[in-house]
Amino acid sequence: MFAVLKTGGKQYKVQAGDILRVEKLAADAGEKIQFNEVLMLGGDAPVVGAPFVDGAAVQAEVIDQIKGEKLIHFVKRRRKHSSQRTKGHRQKLTLVKITDILAAGADKSGIKAATGSAPAGAAAPAAKPAKKAEAKAAAPAAATDDLTKLTGVGPAAAKKLAEAGIESFAALAALSDEQIAAIDAVKVKPEWVEQAKELAKG
């Protein structure tokens, strides 16, 4: 019996006992892992997934974390002021030995799924939107006015003012000359400030 599994963007045809070099996985040497993305099971009764075979899995044992052969990237520019650059790269790989192929019951095996190692710092940006959402939830809702009521302020200018933190007539009326000069998104006109002072009074 054989299986076709998918990992690291590649497909592999495997049998029990095969040794594979796959894209780096988040697992230590000696650890057992399970590939749940099985595209096909072969044998006496072949099964083709759509795209994956339900309940099927390939179990393996991690032998070692290794590096592939060195690849040389050489760039040369043939000009009067020529330059050349040589870079080497060794891809990080995981060496695994296929131990078993399951046609069903993959979710009850209790072995952790094989996952790729995330690049350094990949999880950090995801935390920023959560902090912004928490800050917005914690801050009291500021009063917002329709800035398009000001003469010469259209929807685009109102949006730029809102991005600069000016969402009400009172906020616009309270701007000093230095603060107005510091706004790069939109050029605040003096007549907008005067009109905002009148509208803020009600």
UniProtKB/TrEMBL annotation:
UniProt xrefs under Gene3D superfamilies: 5' to 3' exonuclease, C-terminal subdomain
Keyword Acyltransferase attributed: no
Pfam families: HHH_5, Ribosomal_L21p
Keywords on record: Ribonucleoprotein, Ribosomal protein, RNA-binding, rRNA-binding
GO CC field: ribosome
UniProt key word Ribonucleoprotein: yes
Classification via InterPro entries: bL21-like (IPR028909), bL21-like_sf (IPR036164), DNA_repair_Rad51/TF_NusA_a-hlx (IPR010995), Ribosomal_bL21 (IPR001787)
SUPFAM superfamilies reported for this sequence: L21p-like, Rad51 N-terminal domain-like
Entry similarity comment: Belongs to the bacterial ribosomal protein bL21 family.
Annotated PANTHER family: 50S RIBOSOMAL PROTEIN L21 (PTHR21349), LARGE RIBOSOMAL SUBUNIT PROTEIN BL21M (PTHR21349:SF0)
Subunit structure: Part of the 50S ribosomal subunit. Contacts protein L20.
Role of this protein: This protein binds to 23S rRNA in the presence of protein L20.
NCBIfam families (alphabetical): L21, PRK12278.1-1
UniProt protein name: Large ribosomal subunit protein bL21
UniProt source species: Ruegeria spongiae
